[in-house]
Amino acid sequence: MIKILITDIAYDNITLSQALTRAKLIAYKIDNKDFKSWIDNELNGYFNNNVIFALIKTLLITRLLLIYQYFIHIVLILPMESRLIDHITIIIDFPDR
After folding, report:
1. DSSP 8-class letter at 95
2. CB neighbours of 51 closer than 8 A, spacing ≥ 6?
3. Residues 6+ apart with CB under 8 A from 27
4. Model's pTM, two decimal places?
5. Are 39 and 20 spatial neighbours (Cβ–Cβ below 8 Å)?
6. What is the rounded distance in angstroms from the CA atom of residue 77 to the CA atom of residue 88?
């Protein structure tokens, strides 16, 4: 049953809704509480705001860290590298004494 579901998903033989409905049948057959809960939430929506807020918080923190890293690279590191290259160029181009 699982192999058929995977094959049908992989070859686009069924819609996402159909895949989730089949997965729900599998979840009940194997009696996996977490799997059942996940499928129900996917089919019916997530009503536990704590889960949604935790996900949003994680995404926001990740984006903020990426923006911060970009800022540090553009504002601090690149100018330092540029000044270092300028100094090296001056030293290399400077005539021997």
Report:
1. P
2. 41
3. 35, 36, 39
4. 0.47
5. yes
6. 16
What H or E segment, with its residue span, contains residue 33?
helix 33-44
Q: pLDDT tens digit string along 29-80?
A: 999 888 888 888 888 887 767 777 777 888 888 888 888 777 777 767 666 6
Do the Cβ atoms of 3 and 20 come closer than 8 Å?
Answer: no
Distance, in Å, from the CA atom of 61 to the CA atom of 42, rounded to the nearest integer, reads 24
Q: 81 is written with which tokens?
A: 């590298």
CA atoms of 48 and 64, how far apart (whole Å): 25
Residue recorded with tokens 């704590």: 50
